[in-house]
């Protein structure tokens, strides 16, 4: 074996996300990553605008996280969590309870965002079982996205395309028109009316409302009004429906608040975290719930929460997550995110003037360019790489979610390259 990445083997044998094995799209071989730069095998350096899908909030090859991983490796990389516990899991849980909205104080550690959502759905079902109520369905927002496992797929927008293939196999859920008002538009009461109507009619069957607070990510990178979230929480209370906040993408500062729920000052009953939890180093996720939910489940007929993955509370991942949260808290992350927002605003302004572009949007360290039509993914990806940046468009969207440590010049370069890519006549 040589150090060279065998691209032919990759094409023939290695499945990539949402891709065909017979006609795989081109893949760029990355040799290493450090700070906000990916280094390709041919030596070309790319400024990374994606943070590996929201995850690497501190950038790559981060000293404090490397140290935490090395140190933990000397102790133990993994032990089963059944009947055993350890410092990394307890330390991480304490930090999560401390930094998440008050009232979420029970922590279930799993290994991916989708599983964190599965756990949340199971918590909600088991909670209502324990209350003797037949509430087994969920309501979610159109354009919502919550992961790729079966329970998670069942609460994704069925018309969004991603999971429509599985329609007949998925649990039947309720879907409600998504919020129409953007984050900074004046609030209008009718935005919440569809949810109110649906809950009024069906609340007796509904265990929980699941939503991505403030940012609908994979469903279009839309930033909706905080008042929607506040009123959704009130409706959940009124109709005896739990609220599950999926902050797998938005958690850990991305929107300018530590958690997006804080934009509306609400506390969900159940909260899902992942991605940035370990600074994007390891596969780890968490589902937190209130004491009310935990006590209900524990007093139900099963008496236990029916979930327990092999890699639950993996010490290596937990130790890195502890280091990542400590690093975040010790850094001026809020100032950094604000500054990124400002730099993105400057960089996106000229892009918004281009003919191909419908609009640009911005919230915290997330910048979005929505085109009138889907971009040619392969072509634009090649253009980006040629111009020294890593940006992965999706349909009509070209978006940036840089690490919080990115400097102004790199943000300006990312925006300038997007401008150049979209400025060509169609
Ligand atoms: N929920 C949201 C909001 C997400 O963005 C994602 C990941 N794209 C998931 C759930 C699923 O997480 P994972 O890919 O880690 O399973």
UniProtKB/TrEMBL annotation:
Modified residues annotated as N6-(pyridoxal phosphate)lysine in this record: 275
Cofactor(s) required, per the database record: pyridoxal 5'-phosphate
Binding-site positions, substrate: 53, 145, 275, 308, 392
Database matches in InterPro entries: Aminotrans_3, Aminotrans_3_PPA_site, BioA, PyrdxlP-dep_Trfase, PyrdxlP-dep_Trfase_major, PyrdxlP-dep_Trfase_small
Keyword terms of this UniProt record: Aminotransferase, Biotin biosynthesis, Cytoplasm, Pyridoxal phosphate, S-adenosyl-L-methionine, Transferase
UniProt pathway: Cofactor biosynthesis; biotin biosynthesis; 7,8-diaminononanoate from 8-amino-7-oxononanoate (SAM route): step 1/1
GO biological process: biotin biosynthetic process
GO cellular component: cytoplasm
Subcellular location: Cytoplasm
Subunit structure: Homodimer.
Family: Belongs to the class-III pyridoxal-phosphate-dependent aminotransferase family. BioA subfamily.
Cited NCBIfam families: bioA, PRK05964.1, PRK07986.1
Protein name: Adenosylmethionine-8-amino-7-oxononanoate aminotransferase
Naturally occurring in which organism (per UniProt): Alginatibacterium sediminis
